[in-house]
Design brief:
The protein is α/β, with parallel strands linked by helices. The protein is built from 20 helices and 17 strands. Among the domains are: 49-174, no CATH class; 229-368 and 456-595, Rossmann fold, CATH 3.40.50. The chain has helices at 4-7, 13-38, 52-68, 70-97, 116-119, 121-142, 149-165, 176-184, 188-203, 276-282, 304-323, 335-350, 379-392, 397-406, 409-422, 431-437, 444-456, 494-503, 543-549, 558-566; strands at 229-234, 238-243, 249-251, 255-258, 287-292, 328-333, 355-361, 394-395, 442-443, 465-467, 470-472, 481-486, 509-514, 533-535, 551-553, 572-574, 587-588. The strands form four sheets. Strands 15-14-13-12-7-6-4-5-2-1-17 form an eleven-stranded mixed sheet, sandwiched between helices. It has a two-stranded antiparallel ribbon with strand order 3-16. The longest helix is centred in the N-terminal third of the chain and has 28 residues, at 70-97. It starts with a helix and ends in a 12-residue tail after the last strand. Mean pLDDT is 87; it is low at 1-9.
Amino acid sequence: MTTTEDRSPELTEEHLERLKENMNKVEALSKRLVEVMAGKTAHSPALDGPNQDLFAKAATAYMTEAWQNPAKLLEHQIEFWGKSVLNFAEAQQALASGNPDAAEPGPKDKRFSNPMWDTNPYFRFVRQQYQTNAQAIAQAVASVDDMPEKDKQRLQFFSQQIIDMMSPTNFLATNPDALEKAVETEGQSLIKGLENLVSDLEANNGEMVVRLADDSAFEIGGNIATTPGEVVYRNDLMELIQYKPATETVFETPIILFPPWINKFYILDLKAQNSLIKWVTEQGYTLFVVSWANANASHADIGMGDYIEQGYLTAIEQVKQICKVKQVNAVGYCIAGTTLSLTLSLLKQRGDKSIKSATFFTTLTDFGDQGEFTPFLQNDFVDGIEDQVGKDGVLKAWVVGRTMSFLRSNDLIYGPAIRSYMMGETPPAFDLLFWNGDGANLPGRMAIEYLRGLCQSNDFVNDGFELLGHKLHIRDVDVPLMAITCETDHIAAWKACYRGVQQMGSRSKTFVVSQSGHIAGIVNPPSKKKYGHYTNPDLKADADDWMKEADFHEGSWWPLWEAWLKKRSGKQIPAREPGDSDHPSLCPAPGSYVLVKATD
């Protein structure tokens, strides 16, 4: 007969030393955890979720429906009870019969890819009951009818966030992958995970921001952002980089590219194989790129008008002086494209023809449909942001990053958190995720002007956006333009971009929809032969009809854009080296502003 003592593992000196060492680590890490949480800077609670009015409205509408149609409520309840009992009975049967494979595999969901979710009765019951609960919540939300459409959309979004947050994979006791790893590593994975958690909290002043990539694997200017060039101008808001020519001759009209100041510009220059910046120089163009300052409290009063005057207009004037030309071709990406359209309206009203053509990458100008951002663009959230930036002077990068991440919470929050904090894994050495985590603070005044005047009021399309003594309007955008949008873009939906382009005053418009999303659809080099694109010259139809009649083209849109740009770039001249006697090099590309972290 086997005794209890026989089944116990032998505790050798080595085991005891390892245990003691691990406990010391846990104690030290716990102390650091308490310290960082105690020192966490408080922020407006409105940034963490909608106000209680939304849920009160939902509860009232739900109860009203229940009183008016009790049979419907009972039907839902009985269905939920029935599924719950069946889940339990199935688990009991599997345990009693010793046949864990009897049940059918669950629906495909990469969170539940471990075979134990189907073969182990305990984990299968947990999964099935979670999915039953999730379905019941979604069904209850869908049954709420007596609510405004925006409130209903927000209710659906935030209820889904609760469903995703409560996934059993997010808890150690109900995550077989994490439990197996802990057993295999004698608990080392949990200690490493705690180290990762504490490090992330310390790096973000107590805010939970999951590190997505191994920061130590990348050096800006070392193994990413390496296209050669020089900073030829600098002010408090931006650095202007002129890239070295890659051909003996270049087109006379230079290109100036304005990236979004929500992120760093080097998304367009991650590595040589997918660098749009490098590719443009190889096609024979003189290219300038603006690198924006990472805002701090001293930038609190910088507004949209300052970005136009100190950024766009100043950069354009410097490029004209350096290249000795009267016009430039301008490119704006995301919010920088939105601001480029404001700049074009201003120049039109001033009678200034400095911009020969405009290219817009994933640019929203008509905010009538707020799309997936609807939950975050209502007054309770924007009021909270306004309150917070009033204290900080800036809209901090973690707020913007967290908001973006919640649109894809399983991929950008919970999945990485599980791998880092439960599994103890080092984040991957992935350049795109490294860039994604290298965010930027936004000046407080600019953030509120953008949120209130453009996103909420849609002034640029409606009565005009008042700025710099002018009332700017979308119809004033009348230069030849090309708009590149992305089919699965969840930040700037292509249909919303299309509506804006339709309202622009230009007689020459080219509209393109690239396959993939906000980043991959733009960073899509021809050499990859990965994502195709759609074109249709008829911009009078609505978006659905435009796509229905569009022609599909294999491969990247980059060559299409270059052929369009070539017609608007003048004659060939000897290649220009960066700067001139009045614009000597201040430092090599990628410059100094791009190195400043949001937490610095």
